């Protein structure tokens, strides 16, 4: 990166270390922290949205919708996460290529399955083979994000459905007594009050989501775990900066990062709990909050 | 959400026609000097240089893709990239799933590496090897206890920290590690000949690509450039064609 780093073999001490820590590979390592934070920033609202839809479907008067919502929540919660994390990106990737194969290929093979191979024409590839590496990385990230949103959406759905049931019935009936429609009761009474009941469960979910981010590594996204292993492994002089096994230092760095992240999250959720609790009859919610924290 | 993403991406790519044939070269990037990721974050090593030359001769536009060894064959048949060039030995089992070009690297010895003065035996002790390699298969059949690791580096680390008595790997991979260990590590038990050399892995359904690479490898064998490339990376007394 710096001109003085041109020949690492003659460097020593701190100068060597400074050059070592600013190689292109290390820059990728540092930016992969951004990848993890970006995943969290996108997966959390996406999961919340999916969860909200799931919880609404679960409460729906329409039996088909209710069945769909219940099936989604029960199925995803009942299957090991890792199975979904491995299944969703592959299935989604191949589904997209299958559809593109029908749309964009002039000469289509009889079947996309030929022996072991999944074959689509060049124009149906997702992304195209000629696309920039950045696009391939982005697509991998989007697939991973979708898997996170689907899995954590089901858990969020369960939490939100429980929170909706926890709002005191008397409150809703009072709304009805004032002549509010079901929709108005939901919008003006249930929705503002449910969050205090949902928060303990959601904060747990957030912690689990934070700790699940290394699954990105499993999905082939070059996240911080990938780089810690790659950079920490012992290096012979085939590399410009040979060094022995330094994985313990890199993984210690990750440890600090995750501890900081969860520590800050705890504080933020604490503040949020106080803020949302204003003006509410909190006795019930506090108790539930304490329970939720244990669960 | 999912549908939105799909729709957006379908739309954004709809207008782009496929032009030149881009071949995506899949490699592991963790097996120096065959293939590794250098400090500039680029794929480097013998196979990088060879692959670029093969693509030039075959008139292909090549890009490099790094993929874990564990999933390197599944991701080839799923179409994530078009070739495997990752020090992969041509074996009958792999040939049932994918196709290989002719070998671009001659059959080369593997070797056991252990801590100097260690008491363990390679015939009955604990031997480390990378998952899904011919070395792992050999250890499993040899009567020793096999411990498998996802990356080559982890197999070496296992020997250093005493988790395994020895590691079996390609000798050309172990040689620099032994040389730079300051006498801590040694090769033991002599050479073990495994496999029929390395070939490029391609999907069974793309015969044309295989033919192009076969022709390019033949031409590099014929004019001696392949041999000089092997000597450059593996020393003057490396086995050549």
Report on this model:
The complex is a heterodimer of chains A (295) and B (241). Chain A is an all-alpha fold. Helix content of chain A is 73%, strand content 1%. Chain A has helices at residues 13-20, 24-59, 63-78, 81-104, 133-166, 169-177, 182-212, 215-218, 224-232, 247-277, 283-294, and strands at residues 113-114, 117-118. Chain B has 241 residues and is an alpha/beta fold. Chain B is built from nine helices and 13 strands. Chain B has helices at residues 2-14, 46-58, 72-77, 92-95, 134-142, 152-160, 171-179, 207-222, 225-234; strands at residues 22-27, 30-31, 35-37, 43-44, 61-66, 83-84, 99-105, 109-115, 126-130, 145-149, 166-170, 185-193, 198-202. Chain B has a five-stranded mixed beta sheet. In chain B, strands 10-9-11-8-12 form a five-stranded mixed beta sheet, sandwiched between helices. Chain B is globular and about 55 Å long. Chain B starts with a helix and ends in a 7-residue tail after the last helix. At the A-B interface, α2, α4, β2 and α5 of A face α1, β1, β5 and α6 of B.
Which range does the strand content of chain A fall in? Answer: under 5%
Share of residues in helices of chain B: 25-40%
Spatial order of strands in the largest sheet of chain A: 1-2
Instruction: Sketch the major β-sheet of chain B.
Output: 5 strands, mixed
> What's the level 1 CATH class of the largest domain in chain B?
Alpha Beta
CATH architecture of chain A: Orthogonal Bundle
In spatial order, strands of the major sheet of chain B run: 5-1-6-13-7
Counted beta strands of chain B: 13
**Separation of the first and last Cα atoms of chain A:** 49 Å
Q: Class by helix and strand content of chain B?
A: alpha/beta
- What share of residues are in beta strands of chain B? 25-35%
